[in-house]
Structure of Translation initiation factor IF-3:
Amino acid sequence: MNQAIRVKEVRVIDPDGNQLGILPIRDALAAAAEFGLDLVEVSPTANPPVCKIMDHGRFKYEQTKKQQEAKKKQTTFQVKEIKVRPKTGDHDLQTKLGHMRKFLERKDKVKVTVMFRGREIALSDRGRDLLQVIAKEMEEFAVVEQMPKFEGRTMIMVLAPK
């Protein structure tokens, strides 16, 4: 910017976007002073470097506003985990379904894990049925992103909000 530009010649663009041509740095700085604005290097790698006459403070302000706007529009989600067992009772399951509904309404993903202990691994069909029941109950709030699958002694299914 201004005096910090250390090249002999630059291509100058005025505030309206018109090219003033390739000028010695002294003339470019004089043209910027004539407009009452700053000479800002916008493309230092070009040959010769491109400089634009603009209000640098306003330019920086607009850039930060654009970044804030982009950050505001970003969506973030978390993956919440609900753990159940093959022998989980109906009332406990309804409670867990309520928690899942709340998570899905907040646009979070839900990872449902059925844990098998000891000889319960023989009840894998019951675990799969339990996950199917959960998927059916959550049908209006979520879509099944990952179908039930085994990982060691656990069976996992992931639900994503609609």
Q: What stands out?
A: The helical segments are 25-35, 56-73, 90-105, 124-137. The chain has a mean pLDDT of 90.
